[in-house]
Amino acid sequence: MKYTRSLTFLLLLFFNCTSKDLNEDTYVPEGTFMRINSYTVPCEGIIEMNCLLVQKGNQIGTEQWDYFYDSIEGFEYEEGFQYDLDVLIKAIENPPADASSIRYQLIRLIRKF
After folding, report:
1. How far apart are the C-alpha atoms of 110 and 19, rounded to whole Å?
2. Considering its fold, how many domains does the chain have in total?
């Protein structure tokens, strides 16, 4: 299973990135590979806020970006840069009614560009 996940990730990188897009230190994530866009957009969750724009999976390298309403523990966003991240995604048991049921935690900053 781990071999299949690693192979899938490497194929994804190969077909979605040019050689200049890859970090010199090719890294296979332990969690979920996410790309964060260089700007935020106004959005409305429980309150009005600015959302990150993210890509995961087959979206990476396309023009499709999703709003990201949560935060990523250990990650400090700086506008003007895109980020490739390795993120641990965990379900939260019995979350409060007004909170997310998912926890995002930075494993590693792969690339800031």
Report:
1. 15
2. 1
Q: Environment class of residue 92 by beta-carbon count within 10 Å: exposed (0-12), middle (13-18) or buried (19+)? A: exposed
Residues 107, 29 contacting (CB under 8 angstroms): yes
Q: Can you give the residue range of the structural domain that contains 52?
A: 2-112
Element (DSSP H or E) covering residue 52: strand 48-56
Do residues 85 and 33 lie in contact, with contact meaning Cβ atoms separated by under 8 Å? yes
Residue scoring higher pLDDT (97 or 42): 42
C-alpha to C-alpha distance for 78 and 40, rounded to whole angstroms: 10
- Taking only the tens place, the pLDDT of each residue in 22-67 is 444 566 768 999 999 999 999 987 789 999 999 998 899 999 999 9
What lies within 8 Å, CB to CB, of 27 at 6+ separation is 86, 108, 110
Neighbours of 22 (CB within 10 A): 15
Q: How far apart are CA 111 and CA 27, in angstroms?
A: 10
